[in-house]
Structure formats: structure tokens, C-alpha cells
């Protein structure tokens, strides 16, 4: 009897060692719990099990369940940054996902607050852009500064930086991520950065504009460059509302 | 009773063996300090101990992964995470191309997917500094960069066409017991986007190299190491959603103390 216990416990142990994916794959299957004739012989009629169409005998094809479509009224497109699921802390101490910024035009830049050379100029570039946007458009606009130094730039640090630079208004958001989250985000923006010493990074100077669905609309590269095109893009996006 | 016991024991043994296979083989790499081609301010870089996959991730392993993760299948993947070259030679979402071997390294994968693959195994991609640290070994020495034969071997690979179709393990086993760092495919690293030497980055980056055209090359520590220079150049030129047919990946893992 003891042996039996050992044997069963060995089995249970083995079964618990299933890979990390089993859960997600189950969820994905649940998505396809409705089946429909590919020829739609019976209109929109759906079946809960796979099989063949009673009229044309073709195999039923899975369709995405209708409930999921209703929920996603503002569906996220393939190219949207809202596909990133990483978590971020704001300078106000809230935890958000990028998707929480949905609905507004976004102007994003990656900086770090201990930066002496380029970041102040990048921040100035951001403020210059803001200055050229009429007040009524600002409601539809969010300026987002993402830290590339998540270890130093805590929410408190970012809040202080925001105050010092007169960027504490509602239209400004500062984000602290995780090391891997920041790396992933930089990769989406095609921003390059490298830590040179504990408080110093070299990095690309790119200001990116996203529409309210999180799709990239424009990128401005370089420091102190003419921001006419960037402003133009922002105006177009915020006027369309 | 005893026969039942034997049967179950042998079955469980079999199960553990198949599971061990799905977790690919790794070897330990002892950390150290070295000067990479592109270092930080002090030039020297210190690496901690870690484990590295012996082989790059194969088509077979990747196929198993992707069956469990439909969101990374070719027809499902979001455009923000992969370009049109993603698994481009595969026949369908879960069928390899005609001339692709199961034992060949998987290529045409984006950084995002490679990153998630390692994450899912409880591992991660190597940093550039870690990768280069292991890659400077030849068969017998941990740092063979000064040897002419070492550099010649790598450069002669760069001239060979279509090595990405070769099977894993077809190149040499290095000092640490790692295969195929040179001679098969390029590999993704976690922080590949920290390389700031491309033409594009010269334009928009705030280091002095935007003042001097050749400073990227002069900034390198070892002008003889042309092979490494090529690797950094490739890293500097790719974007995370790119799929290249000679770019694969492998994973590493920290050693918990």
C-alpha cells in the first residue's frame, strides 16, 4: 500500500510539471466554441459543436464567439502599441497598462531624469511642441515621457522632475516600467539605448506620435529639429475628433 | 503488485525523459571580466555565472512552442510584433517548409517571440555582453580572440551561403560546451537595441559619434576583431520585429544562489 502511495505521488508530481502554456491554450480553444457553415447556407446560424453543414455537407468552420466581439467595440489593431501588456507606474503612483491611455493622441519620448546632455533638450522639444498646440486640442492629447532607467526613476523621482520642469499638468504623464518592459517598449519605438555608467545612458532621440488607437503616426528624429511636421500631425489627429 | 510497481516506475521514467528533452540541454558558464568590442565607460565588463543552452532553438522545439501559443502563429501574430518575413518559409501555421529540417535552428523569428519563448521556459535571452563572452571561446580556450585561426574560422563562415539550413551541433563545441555560436546562424540578444553604431543611430543619438563619421569603428576596442564588428553592425541594423533567415536565438538562465 505504501508503494502505491509513492507511485501515485510520483505521478501527481509529474502531472503538475506541465509547461506554462497549458492554461493559455485552453483559453484559446474556448474562443472557438461556435461553428458555422463556410457557405452560410443557413444564414448566420451557428452550431456549438464541429461537424458538417446539413445542407451543403461542408465542414463547419469555427467562428469567434459573438460575445468577445461585443466587448471589443474599439478593437485594438495589429499595429497598436496597446498590444503591449506590460505594467507601468505613473508619477502619481498609479499602475497602468498602455491601453489605459487609449482614446487620446499620444506624443511619446524616452528619457531619464539624471540625464545632463540630451534629455533637457528633448524635454524642451516636447514643450515646444506643446506650445504650438491650441488649448482646445490639448484635451485630446497626452504627452508621455517613458523612463529608460526604471531603477533610478521611481514615481517620486518622476514627480519631482515633472514639477521642476513645469510639466505637472494633466496632459503630461511620466512612466516607470520594468527593465524588460522598457526594453520591449523601446523596441516597438525603434529607440536604442545603452547604459554607459550607473547614471548615464546613450540613447536615440526620437519623439513618436500615436493616434488614439495607439498606431504610430509620425516620428521625429534628432535634437532641436524643426517640429513643423510633428505639430502638423498632432493637429490633424486632434482635430479629427 | 510488484509488476504494477515496475510498470508505473518505467512509465514515469519515460515521462521524465521526454520532459527533460522538452527542456533543452544547458551548460554552466563561469562569469568573469573582459573587454568587449563595445563596452561601457570603463571598457571592462563583468559577467556573473549563468547557464546557456548548448544549441540554438530548433525548428522542432519552436514548432512545439507555437502549437501551444497560437498567438505567435503566422496567421495570428500582430503586425507590431513581426514583419512579413515571420516564419516566411513555413507552409502553414504549424507545418515547416519543404526543405527545412526539424533539427535546423529556427530562423525568421522576431525578437518579441524569441523573448517570450525563453520567458516561457523560465529562461531569458542572453545580453550582448554575455553572448560575446561565451562566443570568444574556441575549443580549448575561454578567450581565443587573439588567435588568427579563431577569427579566420568565423570570417570564413560569413562567406559560406545558407548555413542556416544545417543541423544544430554541426559546428564545434567550445570551451564551455556550447555549440554553434559561430558557423550556423546569428542570434538575438535581449539588449540588441543597445548598439548605437548604425547610420541611422548616428543621426539621432546623442553621443559624439554624430560628429565623427568613423568614430563607431574607432570607438571599438579591438580593431582586429572584424568578425565581432560585423555582429555588432547586424545588431545595430535590425529592428525587433524583423525576421531574418539567418537570425535565430537560444536562451540562458541565471544561476540561483
Summarize the structure.
The complex is a heterodimer of chains A (241) and B (257). Chain A is of the alpha+beta class and 241 residues long. Chain A is built from 8 helices and 11 strands.
Query: From the 3D coordinates, which CATH architecture of chain B would you assign?
Result: Alpha-Beta Complex
Count all strands of chain A and give the number: 11
Number of domains of chain B: 1
CATH topology term of the largest domain in chain A: Glutaredoxin
Largest sheet of chain B: 4 strands, antiparallel
Give the DSSP E fraction of chain A (strand runs of 2 or more residues). Answer: 15-25%
The unreliable regions of chain A are: 15-31, 65-73
Low-confidence segments of chain B? 198-219
> How far apart lie the N and C ends of chain B?
42 Å
Which sequence of strands runs across the widest sheet of chain B?
Answer: 1-4-8-5
Please explain how this structure is put together.
The complex is a heterodimer of chains A (241) and B (257). With 241 residues, chain A is an alpha+beta fold. Chain A has two domains: 30-73, no CATH class; 81-239, Glutaredoxin. Helix content of chain A is 34%, strand content 22%. Chain A has eight helices and eleven strands. In chain A, the strands form three sheets. Chain A has a seven-stranded mixed beta sheet with strand order 4-3-7-6-5-10-11, sandwiched between helices. Chain A starts with a helix and ends with a helix. The model of chain A is unreliable at 15-31 and 65-73 (pLDDT under 50). Chain B is an alpha+beta fold and 257 residues long. Chain B has a single domain, classed as paralog of FGE (formylglycine-generating enzyme) (Alpha-Beta Complex). Helices cover 32% and strands 9% of the residues of chain B. In chain B, strands 1-4-8-5 form a four-stranded antiparallel beta sheet. Chain B has a two-stranded antiparallel sheet with strand order 2-3. In chain B, strands 6-7 form a two-stranded parallel sheet. Chain B starts with a helix and ends with a strand. Mean pLDDT of chain B is 83; it is low at 198-219. At the A-B interface, helix 1, helix 2, helix 7, strand 8 and strand 9 of A face helix 1, helix 3 and helix 6 of B.
Amino acid at each position: 500500500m505504501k508503494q502505491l502511495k509513492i507511485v501515485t505521488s510520483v505521478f501527481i508530481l509529474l502531472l503538475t510539471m506541465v509547461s506554462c502554456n497549458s492554461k493559455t491554450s485552453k483559453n484559446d480553444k474556448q474562443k472557438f466554441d461556435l461553428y458555422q457553415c463556410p457557405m452560410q447556407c443557413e444564414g448566420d446560424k451557428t452550431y456549438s459543436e464541429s461537424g458538417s453543414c446539413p445542407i451543403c455537407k461542408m465542414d463547419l468552420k469555427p467562428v469567434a464567439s459573438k460575445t468577445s466581439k461585443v466587448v471589443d467595440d474599439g478593437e485594438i489593431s495589429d499595429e497598436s502599441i496597446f498590444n503591449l501588456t506590460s505594467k507601468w507606474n505613473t508619477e502619481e503612483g498609479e499602475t497602468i497598462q498602455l491601453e489605459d491611455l487609449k482614446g487620446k493622441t499620444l506624443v511619446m519620448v524616452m528619457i531619464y531624469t539624471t540625464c545632463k546632455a540630451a534629455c533637457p533638450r528633448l524635454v524642451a522639444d516636447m514643450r515646444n511642441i506643446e506650445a504650438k498646440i491650441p488649448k482646445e486640442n490639448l484635451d485630446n492629447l497626452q504627452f508621455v515621457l517613458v523612463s529608460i532607467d526604471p531603477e533610478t526613476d521611481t514615481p517620486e523621482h518622476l514627480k519631482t522632475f515633472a514639477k521642476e520642469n513645469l510639466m505637472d499638468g494633466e496632459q503630461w504623464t511620466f512612466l516607470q516600467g520594468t527593465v524588460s518592459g522598457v526594453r520591449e517598449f523601446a523596441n516597438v519605438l525603434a529607440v536604442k539605448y545603452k547604459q554607459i555608467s550607473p547614471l548615464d545612458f546613450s540613447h536615440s532621440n526620437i519623439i513618436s506620435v500615436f493616434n488614439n488607437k495607439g498606431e504610430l503616426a509620425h516620428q521625429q528624429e534628432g535634437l532641436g529639429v524643426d517640429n513643423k511636421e510633428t505639430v502638423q500631425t498632432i493637429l490633424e489627429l486632434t482635430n479629427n475628433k | 503488485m510488484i509488476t504494477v510497481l515496475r510498470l508505473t516506475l518505467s512509465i514515469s521514467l519515460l515521462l521524465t525523459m521526454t520532459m527533460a528533452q522538452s527542456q533543452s540541454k544547458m551548460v554552466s558558464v563561469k562569469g568573469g571580466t573582459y573587454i568587449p568590442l563595445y563596452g561601457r565607460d570603463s571598457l571592462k565588463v563583468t559577467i556573473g555565472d549563468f547557464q546557456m543552452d548548448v544549441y540554438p532553438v530548433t525548428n522542432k522545439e519552436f514548432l512545439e512552442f507555437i502549437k501551444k501559443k497560437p498567438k505567435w502563429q503566422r496567421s495570428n501574430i500582430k503586425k507590431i510584433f513581426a514583419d512579413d518575413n515571420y516564419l516566411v518559409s513555413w507552409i502553414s501555421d504549424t507545418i515547416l517548409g519543404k526543405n527545412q529540417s526539424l533539427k535546423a535552428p529556427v530562423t525568421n523569428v522576431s525578437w518579441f517571440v524569441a523573448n517570450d519563448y525563453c520567458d516561457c521556459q523560465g529562461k531569458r535571452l542572453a545580453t550582448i555582453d554575455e553572448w560575446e563572452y561565451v562566443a570568444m571561446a574556441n575549443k580549448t580556450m575561454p578567450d581565443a580572440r587573439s588567435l588568427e585561426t579563431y577569427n579566420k574560422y568565423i570570417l570564413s563562415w560569413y562567406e559560406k551561403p545558407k548555413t542556416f539550413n544545417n543541423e544544430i551541433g554541426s559546428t564545434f563545441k567550445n570551451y564551455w560546451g556550447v555549440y554553434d555560436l559561430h558557423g550556423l546562424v546569428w542570434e538575438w540578444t535581449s539588449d540588441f537595441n543597445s548598439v548605437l553604431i548604425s547610420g541611422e543611430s548616428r543621426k539621432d543619438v546623442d553621443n559624439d559619434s554624430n560628429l565623427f563619421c568613423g568614430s563607431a569603428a574607432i570607438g571599438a576596442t579591438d580593431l582586429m576583431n572584424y568578425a565581432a564588428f560585423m555582429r555588432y553592425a547586424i545588431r545595430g541594423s535590425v529592428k525587433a520585429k524583423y525576421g531574418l533567415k539567418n537570425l535565430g536565438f537560444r536562451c540562458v538562465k541565471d544561476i540561483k544562489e
